[in-house]
TrEMBL record:
<keyword id="KW-0472">Membrane</keyword>
<protein>
    <recommendedName>
        <fullName>histidine kinase</fullName>
        <ecNumber>2.7.13.3</ecNumber>
    </recommendedName>
</protein>
<feature type="transmembrane region" description="Helical">
    <location>
        <begin position="266"/>
        <end position="286"/>
    </location>
</feature>
<dbReference type="InterPro" id="IPR050980">
    <property type="entry name" value="2C_sensor_his_kinase"/>
</dbReference>
<dbReference type="InterPro" id="IPR003594">
    <property type="entry name" value="HATPase_dom"/>
</dbReference>
<dbReference type="InterPro" id="IPR005467">
    <property type="entry name" value="His_kinase_dom"/>
</dbReference>
<keyword id="KW-0418">Kinase</keyword>
<dbReference type="InterPro" id="IPR014265">
    <property type="entry name" value="XrtA/PrsK"/>
</dbReference>
<feature type="transmembrane region" description="Helical">
    <location>
        <begin position="6"/>
        <end position="31"/>
    </location>
</feature>
<feature type="transmembrane region" description="Helical">
    <location>
        <begin position="141"/>
        <end position="160"/>
    </location>
</feature>
<dbReference type="InterPro" id="IPR029016">
    <property type="entry name" value="GAF-like_dom_sf"/>
</dbReference>
<feature type="transmembrane region" description="Helical">
    <location>
        <begin position="201"/>
        <end position="221"/>
    </location>
</feature>
<keyword id="KW-1133">Transmembrane helix</keyword>
<keyword id="KW-0808">Transferase</keyword>
<keyword id="KW-0547">Nucleotide-binding</keyword>
<feature type="transmembrane region" description="Helical">
    <location>
        <begin position="172"/>
        <end position="195"/>
    </location>
</feature>
<feature type="transmembrane region" description="Helical">
    <location>
        <begin position="242"/>
        <end position="260"/>
    </location>
</feature>
């Protein structure tokens, strides 16, 4: 006996005895609990005992070189006992009508088993040559295969045809029997194809009997309903992926082997070509995100009751939103990424309300190529989303099959990658909108998608609202500190201005030299005017400090600004119109000077800065355009107009904020379009003098729409 044979024999004996012990233990434990299987309880105990004896007989036969009829007899008794158990389980379920077609099958299988016993016993008493023994071996194996196939069919019908409440009780016992007979099916199939008994596979029969014992034991346990195999989606997907890869490799090897059997140089060439092509396909297809997305959708659709693993989705959402530190993404990008990850969307945008209520770009994630206008979504399109929380499939809007009254901006409908529009509503107020790019495995939304997106959208909206509140509180605290500091500055400057004024009056009365007196008066009055102008500008930060509005020729203001930058030839006046606007001349000139100076600072020395004036509806449109370094959407949204935030060394960070506040005081607005590396466009809109009476009505209608 070689070492390998001895090892397999030892394994067969060990597993056989282990299986017998497990079966006997379950039978003893089940004896006082037989009622849990109804009328089949006693039959199950007897079948367990006979299976244990059969396992022991197989272990003894494996250890003994002498042929014996006992293992075959024990296996036949085991099969007949389990056939009787199936019969009793059918009748105990009340399926007496189903027994009519089942009973002839059981009787036929019992007859086959008896025929096998007779043939086996007769051959054990006779001596025959090798050819007759080979035919007898094939016949015995064929009879065993008939019984195992019939047993599997009966087990399948027992479980599938059972009422819903009975399936919970039959799930584990039926699985145990299926494992036992499925193992025998493979064992006898290999034996028939190989023409000899597969000792290596037969050594593992103890595992099948142990699985049967476990199935019967769990099926009789009180807490069997809690013992369910619930693999996670990740494990299922990875297991399925490994199965697909394994199947692919087996198929590749099988075809290669078949080609090698064909022989010849041409067959060898075909084999090598097939292996090369198959390997290339594996390298290209298996890592594909599109293939993985299709597999995930298919598995989710057919293997799970719900599409989403809500625990995993919520943990991932919390990790994405809550990630902090210097290396983390800004909040806006984390928001859109947390929603995009749900659908494996490769990119997303966040739109939030601007000063006028229109949606503007607040953040973009992995979507640099899409061109988003300054007004990404006008105010009139937002009311249906805010009122209903409707999640729009942009493909439906493109085909006209969306909900009536729901509109999307043209730039979104024109971009084929734009897939979904998700409103973020907080306490019946729209705080933002998320645009998702089309994923690789795009599909139609269903009720589960809508439910999950509404919950995530509400949570994201609360994050955005809370962040806005915190920023407002921080800004308010900075303003309080600023007001305290500026109060002292204003007090000191006011005293100084009073002293200068007194000095000027004294000089008018007491100066002896007319030339000196005149020069001193000019100097002092200029200083006094400058200090008073400074006080006026600083007073704008207090209530009631807005300049008086009057009719101002816009062309003259533009000419004054160009005169201010006469030493900068790169400042170009592109267009000018002679129109009259309602504004404060000094404030408007200050705003335009600030915008042009910022454009010069952001541009290269040879890069032009264009200044233009045009008429747009009831407004005058001032435009400052540069091709400098540009600004990111995050900077424009969160930092450009925030006071005390400056990118210049030593800057106070209040210029852009002051410009926007001055325009608001003149009933105007300031819009910004900017792209990093391309440049910026600042647009100032102020009402025409002839259209001043229209603005109260326009503002009233905007409030009604909002």
């Amino acid at each position: 006996m070689t070492g390998a044979v001895a090892a397999w024999t030892t394994l067969a004996v060990g597993l056989g005895v282990t299986g017998a012990i497990a079966l006997a233990s379950v039978a003893i434990w089940l004896a006082p609990r037989r009622a849990r299987f109804g009328g089949a309880g006693t039959a199950v105990i007897v079948a367990l005992a006979l299976t244990a004896l059969g396992s022991l007989a197989g272990a003894v036969a494996a250890a003994s070189p002498v042929a014996s009829f006992a293992p075959s007899l024990a296996e036949s008794a085991r099969n007949l006992a389990w056939l009787f158990v199936i019969h009793r389980l059918f009748s105990s379920d009340g399926r007496r009508a189903a027994l009519a077609p089942i009973r002839p099958v059981i009787v036929s299988l019992a007859f086959v088993e008896a025929l096998h016993l007779i043939a086996e016993y007769g051959l054990s008493r006779l001596s025959a040559d090798h050819e007759i023994l080979r035919i007898a071996f094939d016949l015995n194996v064929m009879l065993r295969l008939l019984v195992t196939v019939g047993g599997l069919v009966l087990v399948h019908n027992l479980y599938v045809g059972a009422p819903r409440e009975s399936r919970l009780r039959l799930r584990f016992p039926a699985s145990g029997l299926a494992i036992l007979w499925a193992f025998d099916l493979n064992l006898y199939t290999v034996a028939y194809l190989g023409g000899t008994w597969p000792v290596e596979i037969a050594a593992l029969r103890g595992l099948a009997t142990a699985a049967l014992a476990a199935g019967i034991g769990i099926g009789a346990a009180k807490n069997r309903d809690d013992l369910r195999l619930r693999p996670s989606r990740a494990v299922t997907f990875q297991t399925f992926s490994l199965l697909v890869i394994g199947t692919y490799l087996v198929a590749m090897v099988a075809v290669a082997q078949w080609l090698s059997y064909a022989g010849g140089n041409f067959a060898r060439l075909i084999e090598l070509a097939f292996l090369t092509l198959a390997s290339a396909v594996a390298v290209v297809v298996l890592p594909s995100r599109q293939v993985r997305g299709w597999l995930r959708v298919t598995l989710t659709k057919h293997l799970f009751q719900h599409r989403y693993d809500y625990r995993e989705e919520w943990l991932r959402f919390t990790r994405t939103i809550g990630s902090g530190g210097e290396q983390s993404l800004p909040l806006g990008e984390r928001v859109v990424r947390s929603i995009a990850d749900v659908f494996e969307s490769p990119a997303a945008l966040l739109l939030t309300p601007g000063d006028a209520g229109d949606l503007t770009l607040a953040a973009r994630w992995n979507w640099p190529e899409i061109a988003v206008p300054a007004t990404a979504m006008p105010l009139r399109q937002l009311a249906p989303f805010e009122r209903t929380g409707y999640i729009a499939d942009l493909d439906d809007l493109r085909t006209g099959s969306g909900r009536p009254g729901i509109e999307a901006p043209g730039w979104l409908l024109d971009d084929g990658r734009a897939w979904a529009l998700i409103p973020l509503v907080h306490y019946e107020r729209l705080v933002g909108m998320v645009v998702l790019a089309r994923p690789f495995g795009a599909r139609k939304f269903d009720w589960e998608d809508f439910d999950l997106l509404r919950v995530i959208g509400q949570q994201v909206a609360s994050y955005l609202a809370e962040n806005a509140s915190q920023l407002a509180l921080a800004e308010s605290a900075r303003f309080d500190d600023f007001h305290r500091r500026i109060a002292f500055v204003m007090h000191d400057i006011k005293n100084l201005a009073s002293q200068f004024s007194l000095l000027a009056r004294n000089a008018e009365l007491h100066a002896e030299k007319p030339a000196f007196r005149a020069d001193m008066l000019v100097t002092l009055r200029n200083s006094s005017d400058k200090l008073n102008a400074l006080l006026a500008r600083l007073s704008r930060y207090g209530p009631g400090g807005a300049d008086k509005l009057e009719e101002v020729p816009a062309g003259q203001v533009l000419a004054a600004v160009m005169e201010r930058f006469r030493s900068h030839p790169q400042v170009v006046l592109a267009e000018a119109r002679e129109v009259t606007i309602m504004a404060s001349r000094h404030s408007l000139e200050q705003v335009l000077v600030h915008l042009v100076q910022n454009a010069l600072d952001a541009s290269a020395p040879e890069s032009p800065v264009f200044l233009s004036l045009a008429v747009e509806g009831p407004s005058a449109r001032f435009e400052v355009l540069d091709s400098g370094c540009g600004m990111s959407a995050d900077f424009v949204r969160n930092r450009l107009f925030k006071p005390f935030v400056s990118t210049k060394s030593g800057g106070f960070g209040i210029g852009a904020f002051e410009a926007r506040e001055l325009l608001h005081a003149m009933r105007g607005r300031l819009d910004v379009e900017s792209r990093e590396g391309l440049g910026s466009r600042f647009v100032v809109r102020l009402p025409l003098a002839v259209a001043t009476d229209l603005y109260p009505a326009i503002a009233f209608n905007d409030q009604k729409v909002a």
